Amino acid sequence: MSSTGPTDPTTTRFGHTHYTIRRKVLKLIGGAFTVFDQAGNTVMFADQKGFKLKEDIRLFSGPDMTEELVRIHARRALDISAVYDVIDSKTNVPIGALQRRGMKSVLKDEWWILGDGETQRGAIVEDSMALALVRRFVLNLIPQNFTVTLDGVEVAEMRQQINPFVFKIDLDFSKDPAGRLDRRLAIAAGVLMSAIEGRQQ
């Protein structure tokens, strides 16, 4: 399994340094997610179904959902420390895995990026414990910010935008121009975190 690595240079869809993930806040059941590149073009789209015990999110090339690119699949249902496999839908080859850090994420969100042999290769961590506690127990209007590291090196940032109608996360890979972190895995992490945040709100 390869959780990280350079993006295929022929796939311009995943060769950008900035992306934005938008989730419709007012969707009653499930969630609709659109991923845009820095020019505003649609990179991927997902229409998450509601009432599923095991997370299973399919990311398509566009809203017509005719070409499936990536799928995110939880290994177990109702697991606070769930592991999510991210798989290339066309080749059925694993891209990597993401694990939510259970009880740690109750107070401050933390995810692990898993590599071969289920070893931790990286992490996605909320900016500070103080701000995390304020967001959860005082004021939910403070945007979340995350630092993404790989092999001990910061490679990306995720920044939430506060909007009452649309939940947005900006992904910034400007610190990783060589594409060491597979963009598909990072985008999948952003979509997954947006889905979980939607259920918590």
In summary, what is this structure?
The protein is an alpha+beta fold. The chain contains three helices and twelve strands.
How do the strands and helices of this protein lay out in sequence?
Elements: E1 18-24, E2 31-37, E3 42-48, E4 56-60, E5 68-74, E6 83-88, E7 94-100, H1 104-107, E8 110-114, E9 120-126, H2 129-137, E10 145-150, E11 153-161, E12 166-172, H3 183-200
Antiparallel strand pairs: 1-2, 1-12, 2-3, 4-5, 5-6, 6-7, 7-8, 8-9, 9-10, 10-11, 11-12
Give an overview of the whole structure.
Strand 6 and strand 7 (94-100) form a beta hairpin. This protein has a single domain, classed as Beta Barrel (Porin). The chain starts with 17 loop residues before the first strand and ends with a helix. The chain has 201 residues and is an alpha+beta fold. 30% of the residues are buried. The chain contains three helices and twelve strands; from the N terminus they run βββββββαββαβββα. The protein has helices at residues 104-107, 129-137, 183-200, and strands at 18-24, 31-37, 42-48, 56-60, 68-74, 83-88, 94-100, 110-114, 120-126, 145-150, 153-161, 166-172. It has a twelve-stranded antiparallel beta sheet, covered by helices on one side. Helices cover 15% and strands 40% of the residues.
